[in-house]
Amino acid sequence: ILTSQEALEKVGNNAVLVDERDEIAALEDGIPTLDVGKRCDVFSGVDKKTAIENSLRSMKPDVFVLDEIGWDELEIMKKASEKGAKIIATLHGKDFVDAINNFLNR
């Protein structure tokens, strides 16, 4: 099992974590209180589409880390992938079918 830092090191040096509800990095005064890695920029309180568009325009990330993706975010994820960025994302549900249903209906 890899830590999040080890996983990010395997896919690239520059990561962008989109933490819409401040659940992953737990920012306090703009500084992560949880260790998300040295080369990880955090967007908190911003929707995934806006964060990804801004990052692609100005930061050239190697990887995006996204929590609880939905169907409506596929287009911007595809755009990021076409620009060369990798995507690490989660789906949430009590089982596989529930996770897919949540993804489709989010």
Determine the fraction of residues in helical runs and give it as a percent range.
25-40%
Round the Cα radius of gyration to an integer and report it: 14 Å
Q: Any idea what the shape is?
A: globular
Task: Give start-end ranges of low-pLDDT stretches.
Answer: none
* Mean pLDDT figure: 85
Strand content: 15-25%
What features would you describe in this structure?
With 106 residues, the protein is α/β, with parallel strands linked by helices. It has 4 helices and 6 strands, in the order αββββαβαβα. It has helices at 4-11, 48-58, 74-82, 96-105; strands at 15-19, 27-28, 31-32, 40-44, 63-66, 86-89. The strands form 2 sheets. It has a 4-stranded parallel beta sheet with strand order 4-1-5-6, covered by helices on one side. It starts with a helix and ends with a helix.
Task: Please give the structural blueprint.
Blueprint: H1 4-11, E1 15-19, E2 27-28, E3 31-32, E4 40-44, H2 48-58, E5 63-66, H3 74-82, E6 86-89, H4 96-105
Parallel strand pairs: 1-4, 1-5, 5-6
Antiparallel strand pairs: 2-3
